[in-house]
Amino acid sequence: MKAEDVMTPMPIYVDENDTLQDAIALMLHHRISGLPVLGETGHVVGMLTEGDLLRRTETHTERKRPRWLEFLVGPGRLANEYVHSHGRRVKEVMSTRVISATPDMPLDEVVRLMEKHHIKRVPVLRNDKLVGIISRANLVHALGAVINEIPATTVSDTSIREQLLTTLDRTAWASKGLIDVIVRNGVVHINGIVLNAEEINALTVAAENTPGVKEVRNDVAWCDPMSGLVIENEPPSLRASNDLQSMI
């Protein structure tokens, strides 16, 4: 998938000279947490987000420091913070660093940008002009649209086993050689021992994502490598019952 496949086209935006009051009203009306900011030439010059509005004098949340620390911070940074917390125009409050994508950018690259820069939305530009925006909500909607698109297929038990074992062999977490997989009529039975309790759930997920699997029965036990203690993998219903008994 590409950016253009999931982006919101023709997104709502504000002008850099708009008042902060108008921008906030726009965000509240459309229930969005961030807006691209366009300059006089129509190019994206910044982003205005909820995070930019946290430190404001109106809500008495502007940053406060002891005098000695202000001396160390320096007048330049203090002046910038003052403008940010007291400014009345979008351009005075917005974040000027813009991380953008192109319509043909692969979706995994867009997500990588969001993770790397700790941002929640990415404007999509074509020839430096705003054509869309991708937010985390867009990604969730895309997932909801495709998560059930895996076609139902008739796969032999042998093929299911081979595919699952190949998948596990390519991972860095599976305790290779300590687990066994048996498939009967599309039902995957996983047995053996793992050295990390988190592997148990990961094994189930790997099996569930193998084409042709109808059900997964995970009977893997966890062995604590420090103590050598082996803990059986209880069925969820039994585990919940035991937890309830321990609370009584």
Topology of helices and strands:
Elements: H1 3-6, E1 8-9, E2 14-15, H2 20-30, E3 34-38, E4 44-49, H3 67-73, H4 75-86, H5 90-93, H6 107-117, E5 121-126, E6 129-135, H7 136-146, H8 157-169, E7 179-184, E8 187-194, H9 198-208, E9 215-218, E10 221-223, E11 230-231, H10 236-247
Parallel strand pairs: 2-3, 8-9, 8-10
Antiparallel strand pairs: 1-6, 3-4, 5-6, 7-8, 10-11
Folded structure, characterized:
By secondary structure, this protein is an alpha/beta fold. It folds into two domains: 3-146, CBS-domain; 157-247, Histidine-containing Protein, Chain: A. 39% of the residues lie in helices and 21% in strands. The protein has ten helices and eleven strands. The protein has helices at residues 3-6, 20-30, 67-73, 75-86, 90-93, 107-117, 136-146, 157-169, 198-208, 236-247, and strands spanning 8-9, 14-15, 34-38, 44-49, 121-126, 129-135, 179-184, 187-194, 215-218, 221-223, 230-231. The strands form three sheets. Strands 7, 8, 9, 10 and 11 form a five-stranded mixed beta sheet that branches. A three-stranded antiparallel beta sheet has the order 1-6-5. The protein has a three-stranded mixed beta sheet with strand order 2-3-4. It starts with a helix and ends with a helix.
